[in-house]
Amino acid sequence: MDISKRDLAEKMRSCGLKPTAQRIAILQNLAARKDHPSADAVYRSLRDEHPSLSLNTIHMNLESFAAKGIILKVNVLHESARFDGDNGPHHHFVCVRCKKIIDLHNVKVPAIKIPRHLGAAKIFYQHLRINGICETCQG
Ligand SMILES: [Zn+2]
Ligand SMILES: [Zn+2]
Fold this sequence. Notes:
A hairpin with a 5-residue loop joins strand 3 (about 90-95) and strand 4 (about 100-105). The protein folds into 2 domains: about 5-85, Winged helix-like DNA-binding domain superfamily/Winged helix DNA-binding domain (Arc Repressor Mutant, subunit A, Orthogonal Bundle), CATH 1.10.10.10; about 90-139, Dna Ligase, domain 1 (2-Layer Sandwich), CATH 3.30.1490. The protein has about 140 residues and is α+β, with helices and mostly antiparallel strands. Helices cover about 35% and strands about 15% of the residues.
């Protein structure tokens, strides 16, 4: 996914975040990858080019992007949060051994019956997570 810096800056402005150079570098890194990285993995891939970016800054920014809905936060098997640059509707397969997260697009999930005790709660989207063991880990 190749998203220009201008588009990323626009995305941030539209939800009230100031598009700083650091924030753009973080969001651009996430948008370019499909592995649903942890904050630590984003830090490791940015630290050579952006030595002034700390792990804490990356973590805080990813959390605020997720809070604004620009990215998704995916919690995997009770470990540290993983982040997804694709905030469109899709589902996930999670390997319980290597913790790999694979996107599942075009998987149709039947509409569930909303449980009564949710009352008038509004449902934004349904997310299906399939836990299993990936092909590589079975080898
Ligand atoms: Zn695996
Ligand atoms: Zn995903």
